[in-house]
Give the backbone structure.
Amino acid sequence: MKTEPSTQNRRDLNYPKHIVCLSFIFLYFGNQLPEVDLKAVILDTHASFRTPISNHPILHDSDHAGTRDAGFVSVIQWNYIFNRNIPVGAGPFQPMKSAEDKMLDAPCLQQQGVELILKVLRESPEPVSILSFGSARPIAVACNREPDLFYRKVARIYFSAASSSPGYLEWNIALDVNAALRLLRSNLPIDIFPCAAKKGPFEYEPHNSYWKLLDLQFIKTLDPKIRRYLDYAFGRACRCDFLRAMHEHSSPAPMIDAYSHPHHVWETAVWMALSDRVLGQRSDKSYRIIPAGALTPTDRVLPGRLEPCLLQVSNDGLFTFQITQPRRIFESTIERIPGRMKTRFVKLYPNSTDRFIPELMDVETLIALRPFFYS
């Protein structure tokens, strides 16, 4: 039987041919990686965070910048500045009542995300990969409505959620435990990239994908249209003319503050796995995120892989695993790098002027989690 945790266990956290359930910044990777044909964006929104102070039974967040709604503006802006027409829809705001819930009673607007997933699967001539960076509720509900379609047309689900330790209930799982149970107890092909470890989401452990980015100063070096897009997002701007804002630089003072703080990263390992990239060290001792097919004989690949495993999932969303079959869970390696290295930037594509990723952060210890140095 599942027991409800007391308010003493509430946690104060601040996070803020492919389908992606994501936040604004992942549009960059979904559009800039040539291996990715981004078919749709599903917005994962939660009723608990549409209030000034969260009323979630476990997750507590007081956001002084205001409440949180579905991020339609971010997707519309991206379509505008890059002349794209990526479909977008919101998923249900309320949690699932059970792992089998089809949520047919959700309001029309909140049906859009579920229906969009099913539409992409039906219309695609080949299997589709789904990336999940939130509660996974729209994915689970879509699967409940048309399970045969899911088993036939889903190539793989990249599941960025959960804890590698059974003692910690991770944020994305806690958002909707039933959604996680529906997917993790299915026979769908799922790769799991745990976001947390035994003590929480901000520690390094061999099977989680966390990285602490010391600051976001690299954004200042990006193409101006991407810079303006990220300025608007990180600056928490709220304008009626949000498209015109894509032609104006933000005031420097608030952006200096926004980009000077550390940034927590969990998702890059997913994009690297999807696009078949590895973290390698070149002969000049520099580190690069490299397409697997572009490795040279002198490159040294840092260990990081997905291991087959067997899950035992409890009703509260926690799980234990044994390295075997059939799931695959992320495994990382910790490697010491002598001295302190400052942030450098490398062009991801040699002929591009607007595709950059941070190469290596200013740290003494590199945690090589199948490369994920951007978010």
Summary: The chain has a mean pLDDT of 77. The longest helix spans residues 112-123. The first strand starts at residue 11 and ends at 12. DSSP finds ten helices and 19 strands in the chain.
